[in-house]
Hints:
The protein is mainly alpha-helical. It has helices at about 10-45, 50-85, 105-145, and strands at about 5, 90, 100, 105. Helix 2 packs antiparallel against helix 3 (about 105-145).
Amino acid sequence: xxxxxxxxxxxxxxxxxxxxxxxxxxxxxxxxxxxxxxxxxxxxxxxxxxxxxxxxxxxxxxxxxxxxxxxxxxxxxxxxxxxxxxxxxxxxxxxxxxxxxxxxxxxxxxxxxxxxxxxxxxxxxxxxxxxxxxxxxxxxxxxxxx
Length: 146
């Protein structure tokens, strides 16, 4: 019978609070954006000569807001995968879990670590692709507008 690493009730509460905080923050960001969107549109269209520069600035901010979390999550997955491959154990020793989890050791844990690292690489590629596509759309829109 395999060993089981027990869940930590405090970690479960912390995870639920984190999800609730994220949902609340996301709702506030959407509400603020909707509230100030007309003002942003007026600012963007108020000076046709500066429209290109303004749209590029807005695009940079939006691209960073979209890809920064992807890069951060990719870094987290890479480090976690590296630790799993180094220690040949999943979950890692002393890790606080939200549910009871069977301990995987040896090659199976290394494979899980490698999968997390491949997922991290995929997220980085996705983030770069999103940035390139959004930037290309803005360049096309600006070229079409002039």
